[in-house]
């Protein structure tokens, strides 16, 4: 009985330590997450709703699929953003990172990724943003601050339908 109590006490202590780590936004072994901003760094009048939330949007939905998926992105005009990010990579003013490893990618490595998709940026069918969300109670409004965007290229099955997306790279935003 004493052994059971000791094991339970030890495991509860580990869980509390893990919870403290997750409360600060830092997870052991995950260098891509940033800690929650201290209250002093919050925008004036803002309450932090979430940090490092990932929101994904399929910008090229299947036209034969759910009509709501098409309606949700009817106003999408992101081609200029996509082209600008690629231009900045190639002119050396922006560094992007491998989605999985977090390693910096050279412009030559990005060119190889783009060549895999025949240099057709219209095949970027999914955008994934990492954001912080703030609520302003006095104004009853929410503000999202996008910290990075990951481009996802479409992958097709043997019937020509999109079945998944390949993350090209992560671009950090200011």
Layout: helices, strands, pairs:
Layout: H1 2-23, E1 47-58, H2 67-72, H3 79-90, E2 96-97, E3 104-105, H4 107-116, E4 124-136, E5 141-156, E6 162-172
Antiparallel strand pairs: 1-4, 2-3, 2-6, 4-5, 5-6
List low-pLDDT spans. Answer: 1-33
Give the SSE string: HEHHEEHEEE
β-strand amount: 25-35%
Count of discrete alpha- or pi-helical segments spanning 4 or more residues: 4
N-to-C span: 56 Å
The overall average pLDDT, rounded, is 84
Largest sheet: 6 strands, antiparallel
Helix content: 25-40%
Number of strands: 6
Side by side, the strands of the main sheet go 1-4-5-6-2-3
- What's the shape? globular
Q: Which structural class matches the secondary elements?
A: alpha+beta
Cα-based radius of gyration, to the nearest Å: 21 Å
Count of structural domains: 1
Q: Please, could you describe this protein's structure?
A:
The protein has one domain. The chain has helices at residues 2-23, 67-72, 79-90, 107-116; strands at residues 47-58, 96-97, 104-105, 124-136, 141-156, 162-172. The termini are far apart. A six-stranded antiparallel beta sheet has the order 1-4-5-6-2-3. The protein has 174 residues and is α+β, with helices and mostly antiparallel strands. It contains four helices and six strands, in the order αβααββαβββ.
């Amino acid at each position: 009985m004493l052994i059971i109590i000791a094991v339970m006490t030890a495991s509860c202590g580990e869980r509390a330590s893990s919870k403290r780590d997750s409360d600060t936004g830092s997870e052991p072994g995950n260098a891509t997450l940033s800690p929650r901003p201290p209250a002093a760094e919050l925008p004036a009048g803002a309450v932090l709703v979430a940090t490092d939330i990932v929101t994904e949007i399929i910008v090229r939905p299947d036209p034969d699929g759910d009509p709501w998926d098409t309606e949700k992105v009817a106003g999408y005009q992101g081609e200029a953003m996509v082209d600008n990010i690629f231009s900045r990579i190639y002119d050396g003013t922006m560094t992007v990172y491998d989605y999985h490893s977090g390693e910096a990618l050279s412009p030559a490595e990005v060119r190889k990724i783009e060549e895999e998709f025949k240099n057709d940026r219209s095949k970027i069918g999914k955008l994934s943003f990492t954001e912080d969300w703030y609520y302003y109670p006095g104004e009853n409004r929410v503000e999202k601050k996008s910290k990075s965007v990951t481009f996802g290229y479409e992958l097709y099955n043997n019937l020509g339908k999109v079945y998944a997306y390949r993350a090209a790279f992560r671009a950090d935003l200011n």
